[in-house]
Write a structure and sequence with these properties.
Helix content: 25-40%
Order of helices and strands: EHHHEEHEEEEHHEHEEHHEEH
Number of strands: 12
Largest sheet: 12 strands, antiparallel
Number of helices: 10
Structural class: alpha+beta
Radius of gyration: 20 Å
Shape: globular
Distance between the termini: 41 Å
Strand order of the largest sheet: 4-5-6-7-3-2-1-8-9-10-12-11
Strand content: 25-35%
Length: 295
Amino acid sequence: RSRAGARGPSRSRPATSAHVDGVFEAYVPADAVFLAGADIGKIRQTKMFRIMVDGEANSGLSSFSAVTGLDPRKDLASFISWSDGEKAVTLARGNFNESQFALRLNGRGLRHVTYKGANLYANGSDSVVLLDSSLVAAGRTASIHSMLDRYDPARRLPLALAAQLKHLPENSEVWAVFIGGFDHLGAGLPSGNLAGVMQSLGGISSGSVGLEVTRGLDLQARLNCQSSDAAHRVDQAARGFLALGRLATAGKQPDLGQVFDAIQIRQDQTIVNVTASLPEDQAARFLDIWMKKGS
């Protein structure tokens, strides 16, 4: 029996947040600084989701699918990803047949190993662990080992991340929260044209981003800054980025230009709020262009 999960279906437990399945909480470490997730069951039929899954860009969800062989369009109900700044793991809920799942992983070149009673399937750098018939996790092998080492069935979400989750709109189907600023997310500042913008965003200490995509795209982001001066710099940097976007797309890509026009930025003391609302067709065209640019 796995120390990190009882065999058989995951037992439901009261959740700290309406956005996070309570079963996930025991696998999120106390020092996590980033948490993101999606209610796939609600967005599965949307244009946005189909573009995310079928798009050429290597998103976190497509990376998870590439390792596990699971198809988000039919195998998954929800997922979360966490990071502590160095290690990261994605967990997903669905309905899995363990023997068929094992055969699928073996066919993808992952070999079975046992770690602290849990059945892992690894190819050296990456590992997948079927925690029970409705819960699977994937990530770098060191990250999966660390998650199992720190598993605590009584654990709740870190208080600081839970506080950021409270700022999400109730109807957000895709979301992300973070604490500790961008420097703690495990990504260095870029060079080139984006360096100045990212340095201005260095004054952000925590934040939340919520998306509703079932009726188009409604964005609500809250960026908490270290001071009102830092919030002003973030506000101005964000407005400058939008202005550059409008100039770059003027007369060339009207769909993208309309997206930049729809984004609203408002500073409220130490908080910068970013909102946007787009109809489904326009949001889908924007996402399709954006993902192809990132591929």
